[in-house]
Amino acid sequence: MKRSEFIHILSQLLQPSAIKDFAPNGLQVEGAETVHKIVTGVTASQALIDAAIKLGADTILVHHGYFWKGESPTITGMKKRRITSLLTNDINLFGYHLPLDIHPELGNNAQLAKLLDMRPEGGLESGANSVAVKGRLHTPLTADEFAQKIAQVLERKPLVCAPRGKKIETIAWCTGGGQGYIDLAAEQGIDAYLTGEASEQTIHSAREQGIDFFAAGHHATERYGIKALGEFLAGEYGFDVTFIDIDNPV
User: Keywords for this entry (predicted)?
Assistant: First the structure.
């Protein structure tokens, strides 16, 4: 498939122009004109690029790409080595950040909900394109039971702060670094909040506002959207797609 057609498919599917983001969504580094063999992964690290080169991929599709707001615009050091590897091997790099978080079927939040038996009921934020989601557990669980479920499914023991001492029925979540939404969840009287990371103040917010909190890892909570996107592209359009999980304990 021509790269231009591939871009159109992804733009129609993920609607990147509908949400403000911290990095450009779509084609970030231009490579081959034809897309055939795709590698998907969470982050466009050197390890992922090297693995894609070994597989002979012409396209890499990630959640965390390059050119974030606030970072140095110079192409030096680590960034230079990564981009040199892409250009030398004529590999396209596509990155989709928030559009992949919020997609109602393929997105990180939607995929995490399926894995952990959470039922989405709407956005945590008011208005369209809420990055965080709220809903319910299909089966109410104690904090210990839910933590065990997270550990089993994501293969990652979560950080837990559970001041309520009651079963969890309502829950809000945001994959990745969404710990700042805990206060909004508490304001809405939600039982628990799940995300990838925690900050120092997050635990105080949980304790003082009486909301159970779970941090299950930025990488661990965001493996599944990009994997689902690749599987969709393979199924619908016949692409040769390989998901590569470069482990990250954060």
Answer: Metal-binding
